[in-house]
Amino acid sequence: MAADTQNHASRRSQGRLIGYARVSTDEQATEAQQIELRASGCDQIVDEHGSGASRARPALAKLVREIAAGDTLVVVRLDRLARSVSHLLEVIEDLTAKGAHFRSLRDPIDTTTPQGMFSLQVLGAVAQLERALISECTKAGIKAAKAKGRMPGNPGIRDRLPEALAKMKTAQKASYGARVQATAQQWLPTVRRMRPDHTWDDIARFLKQRGLAWSPERLRRAVKWLVTEGMADAALLRKSPPRLPEDRLMTLVAGIQSSNPQLTLREISSQLERLHERTPRGGTKWAPSSVKNLLDRAKRNGLLSEA
């Protein structure tokens, strides 16, 4: 027991313990989970209300995106975090890529210990077996259907029946809309600040610096859907004016600074040189003063807060 307490104290000294508490509906409360998480040493707790059958969890996505190396994400039970073994492994893989850890209080999963990593490997093997079994069952079902003269898939869609195609299109639109709405709070405020003064390329580049992978076309399509549904201003889709090369640099520098506010002007200069970005005057060596001028412009244009 003493050794276990010492191990936990050691982990706290290396990084934060951040709790994640989730309930399925707004009517339910996370107090019970919070009490257990705080008792385990979590000073910060992120709450979320979301169905266990859905992966659309903006608060969890933001937590994983912003967690620092050495920190540990803590949950009361595995089902509070993930909807399936594969989803759990995806989240843990994202944490591992950032140098962070994961721990479940009621399950033998703690990626800071050898025993916890072994349990995780067992889960991975189970997930792989589950995928293989599903694949084999699917193939067997298709083979049996063909032997009986039946073709796999929806007959209406296969025969291109208008009613079946219309239902499929409606379902696809609903699924796409749900995905857009689930993540909109992460990127839509930035789009509203930058459009239509900045191109979709500029905005996608800025979001990428903040860890959000959007292509210009996917971003424009998502905003178009929100406008069509009356959830965003149509002015966001107006054509942007021609941009000077210096405006692109301003957006890039603002994105670098936004992704890591602790960077010094000289460190940002070094990053720009590693990216082989030319200075506003066409040079290859960046001076901190040039970076400061671009950051000041970004603040005046609303890309960065004055703070």
TrEMBL record:
Top-level taxon in the UniProt lineage: Bacteria
Full protein name: Putative DNA-invertase y4cG
Record GO biological process: DNA integration
Keyword annotations of the record: DNA integration, DNA invertase, DNA recombination, DNA-binding
GO function terms (MF aspect): DNA binding; DNA strand exchange activity
The family this protein is said to belong to: Belongs to the site-specific recombinase resolvase family.
Catalytic residues as annotated in Swiss-Prot or TrEMBL: S24 (o-(5'-phospho-dna)-serine intermediate)
